[in-house]
Give the backbone structure.
Amino acid sequence: MLFYNVLIRATLLFLFYGTFISCKKEKEEVVRDNQSAKSLVDSIYLYGQQVYYWNNQLPNEITFNNYKNTLKSSDELENIQAGLFYISQFAKNRQTGRKYELSNIEGISKYTTIVAPEQKKDNLLNGFGINITNINNSSLLVKYVIPNSPAAKNGLKRGDEILAINGLKSQNITDYKNTFAGNKLDISYLTNASEQRFIVLEKSNYSPNSIINHQIINDSYGYISLLNFPSHFNDLDKIFQTFDSKNIKNLIIDLRYNMGGFLSGCDEFVNHMITDKLHNKVYRKELYNKTMQKRKATILKNKPVLDQEGVPIFFIENRVGTFYDIDYSLENNIYFFNKLGSFNTLKKVYFIVSKETASASELLINSLEPYVDMEIIGVSNNDEQGKVYTYGKPVGSIAIPIGRYSVYYTMFQNINAKNQGDYFEGILSDWTTIDDLRKDFGDIADPAIKHCMRIGTKADVKPTAVQKIKMQEIYQEITQRPILIKEFSLAH
């Protein structure tokens, strides 16, 4: 059997959707769409035994079968989600004693998830393009606006204070449920300049821009704020050409609300940042479980590697190539920097992060840590300890089709050139300051940017006392669950 090597393009998929916040079977059996819900739950367990990153900590079959027999729901997806959550809660971090996949949402794993066909979305979003936050039960502020959205095109900005929506003036979350479920918003608001305005937003499809803002600050700092990483940046080369023309040596990368994006976009971004000295040096490595590395995940023989249109990616001896034919050994999953563009003057980078900073954003930081002088500035408004940790997601997935669903098991861990990547509890910031929602991205008065500049000038820098501010999401356009997914294409 030919062990097929492919060029792997890893991406980070988001589940985008408008929301109001508020067994005993043959191991090689092919999963059919008409299987019963409990049979699909069996398949969830059987695939997990071979492909799940922590497969050595899964329950035995007797324990799993006893659990499966307790499932009473008539809803197929509900049973499958319950089974997936159940098996994901056994793996524990032996250093901390905490469950790897414990999240702050009941019944939802931190990493592993499942997607039904009707939940899959293209690159378009449908909505208004705003995130509104209640501050101290007294005011509604725009936390951020998604570039290219209806809100952005109508002039709304971070820090604008919402006075009324469709005539409703309330600080109660439930009062807005029906409001945001509609297709039109009449918004009265106050700008940062205390100018009162009125706009009408109509819900529509739009293609979001990942770059919120970019500029040069005080002729010394190149600033970029990223909401996420797209599959490809349209204007990144021009931005870094501008930084190069101004001989910028310090970059401020604002990732405070960036929960990831396409890893191909992360690759593109990091390769524009680095200098020629890092070209061809180790960027990151992917580590799979022993079953996968030793090519013993035989259940994958039943899973062809297909593109988004369902067309086979490669063939072996006149048959369709499968996920079993991929090389998951560590030596075949080492990735190297590939310098892009003319920018070659980087000396130091400042990352602005928060507890929402996740996945590809954390990968960017971790991959550069062995090579680049950096400072991490955490922003928060309600951390009593004054410490800011990022989300904590050093792992990724390959979409496994089971029945009509796509299951995203945690399947590999990303590590850097120093073999570091155990930030399951998040990456701890070096400094902490407040997240002032009234200061727009790139505003020199933003406490986070001021903090970067004080560090850069070697001024007396002291930890900022984090103010206790009650913040509650009223509405956010994107509910993001970062899932690091590998896509495959033929090597050239």
